[in-house]
Amino acid sequence: MAKSPTKTPADASAPKNTAATKSAAAKSAAAKSAATKAAKPTVVAASAVDIPVPAIVTELAKKDFLDRVTEASGAKRAIAKKIVDAVLMELGDALQRGENVNLPPLGKVSINRLKEVPNAHVLIAKIRRSKVMVEAAKNADTPSELEGDADD
After folding, report:
1. In which band, very low, low, confident or very high, does the pLDDT at 77 lie, cut at 50, 70 and 90?
2. pTM
3. Cβ atoms 105, 87 nearer than 8 A
4. CB 139 within 8 A of CB 119
5. Calpha distance 152→145 (Å, rounded)
6. Whole-number Å distance between alpha carbons of 59 and 112
């Protein structure tokens, strides 16, 4: 077998510890430290940002969601259940495929990250709702008023 070449420093004759190299190293470290301090993000207090935060986080179960849809649409429960199941299935499939979904009453849903875990696919998404939609939802009596019944 061939011998591997030995490694030698590029300039073995140069002095290793001179005052000039120590001074240059100190200046370089000081510049890096100043750059790191300048690059720190500014922290803004939560009260300075106008984000509507619910007082209590609750979960809307499918049964309650179906009750609300049935009441708002006036459809029979069996028909509303089939429609809700189909809509939720298509919405989940579209998000799983990595598609951004833009549904005006809901908002624009975009995927930030996908993660595979042993028993599930984890989708980390964000929903962007315009302030007009949020205000309309607060003032509307029924969800159909948000769209203006454009499908009729």
Report:
1. very high
2. 0.51
3. no
4. no
5. 12
6. 22
